[in-house]
Amino acid sequence: MDEALAARMQALLDRQDILDCLTRMSRATDRADRDLFLSAFHADAIIAAGPFVGSPVELFDWASALQEQAHSATFHNILNHHCEIEGDTAHGETYYLYAAANRDQTNILAGGRYLDRFEKRDGQWKLLVRNNLIEWSSIVPALDNPLNALPDIHANGIAARSREDASYLRPLRNVRSRNVPQV
């Protein structure tokens, strides 16, 4: 493999590792998975998110307490991602869409961008600095979900803010009865 192709392949691998770091952090937040969350950050990272400014451990503890008090479910969606890599440092801009089901029967919707600095240490890309730019947010009333009335809708597992979530079940399988509804 020539040098130009090898450099391009390494850039693609680095970019994918950085994107994996972002999705790992988002999944960990929604599943309240402390170990997975902390694996996305260097221990000396600093994060500014809404009213919070602090370390990864402090962020996880603060966000978990807030979510336990206010939310029954959260979804951190990673959208457009731009990343500039220079050696073992990278700067990223990642659009996000955030949704939360609140315990008071409302929903929060918010959109913004994560401005991140990553460092590659010991061969691993992790977040070192995060600034969360919230560009818009709204609170909307919750509506009943008619799908929850289906008799076996949760037979394949339930959504949970823990490792009891269906996404952790292995091997993945279907136990619901075959059903192709009429249109």
UniProtKB/TrEMBL annotation:
SUPFAM superfamilies assigned: NTF2-like (SSF54427)
UniProt protein name: Nuclear transport factor 2 family protein
UniProt-listed Pfam families: SnoaL_4 (PF13577)
Organism: Sphingomonas naphthae
Transmembrane parts of this sequence: none
Gene3D superfamilies: 3.10.450.50
SnoaL-like domain segment(s): 10-130
Annotated InterPro entries: NTF2-like_dom_sf (IPR032710), SnoaL-like (IPR037401)
